[in-house]
Amino acid sequence: MKHVKLGVNIDHIATLRQARGEKNPDTVEAARVVYSSGGDMVVMHLRQDRRHIQEADLERVRTDVKGILHMEMAAVPEMEKIALRVRPDSVCLVPESPRELTTQGGMKLDGKRPDIAKVIKNLSAAGIAVSIFTDPEPQAIRAAHNMGADSIELCTRKYAESWGKKLQAKELEKLQLAGFLVKELEMELHAGHGLDYYNVMQVARIEGMDCLNIGFSIISRGLFVGLKNAVAEMKRLIQ
C-alpha cells in the first residue's frame, strides 16, 4: 500500500504560547516531537495578522530542526519575501480573511491571477515546491496547474463538516474525482482541513493521495494523550 505522508500543522502550539506572551510551548520542541513520532513534515501558517506563528518560529524551525518544513501563506509580496529568505522546502498558497477563525475554503481561481502566477514563478525559481489550496473543483485545479503549481491541496472542509453518511459520501466523491484530475495533470495530490481521527481514513485511501496536512485535531488530541502519541496515532490511521 502506498505511503501517505503526514504533515502536522503546529500553529496552535503557537496559539497557546501567544495567549500568555511567553516562550513556551516552544514550536521548535513541537517540531522535534512531530518528526520523532512519525510525522513526515511540519506545517506552519504565517498569517498576515501574526495571530499564532511568528517569523522567528519559521526561522528557528528551519535552522534548528532537521526535517521538512512546509509553509502556508497568502500570495502577497510580504509573504513571498519571507519565504524566499527562510527557504522552506515547500509552500502552500492559501486564501486569508482578517476576521476568519480559520481558512474558509480554497483559493478562488475563476479568473486570471497574474499576481499568484508571479509568486509561484519566483518561489519555484528559488527551488521551493509550490502547492495551491483549492476546493475540489476542476476549474480551480486546472488554473493552478496552468500557473505552474507543483501540487494541489484539496480543501476537505465540506467533507469534514458534512452530517450523515449520504452527504459525506457525496463530498468524498467530489474529492475522489478531483484527485483523478490532479493525477491526470501529473501533480502531487495533498488534502487537508477539518480532518480528524474519525474521518481521515477514507480521504487517506483516495487513489493517488500523496500527503495529508492535519493540525487542530492532532494538537487537541495531544492535550490528553501527549503530542507524540497523537501524531503516532494519526500516522497509523492514514497507512
Task: For this entry, give a set of tags.
single chain; 239 residues; alpha/beta; TIM Barrel; eight-stranded parallel barrel; 11 helices; 8 strands; globular
Number of domains: 1
Q: Kindly report the spatial arrangement of strands forming the biggest sheet.
A: 1-2-3-4-5-6-7-8
CATH architecture identity: Alpha-Beta Barrel
Structural class, from secondary structure content?
alpha/beta
What is the residue-averaged pLDDT?
95
How much helix, percentage-wise, in residues?
A: 40-55%
- SSE order: EHHEHEHEHEHEHHEHEHH
Please report the number of helical segments: 11
CATH topology: TIM Barrel
Major sheet, described briefly? 8 strands, parallel, barrel
CATH hierarchy class name:
Alpha Beta
Extended strand count: 8
State the fourth-level CATH superfamily: Aldolase class I
Poorly predicted tracts of residues: none
Question: Brief description of this entry?
Answer:
The protein is α/β, with parallel strands linked by helices. It has helices spanning 11-20, 27-36, 55-64, 77-86, 114-125, 138-146, 157-161, 165-184, 200-204, 216-225, 227-238; strands at 5-9, 41-45, 68-73, 90-93, 129-134, 151-155, 188-192, 211-214. It has a single domain, classed as Aldolase class I (TIM Barrel, Alpha-Beta Barrel).
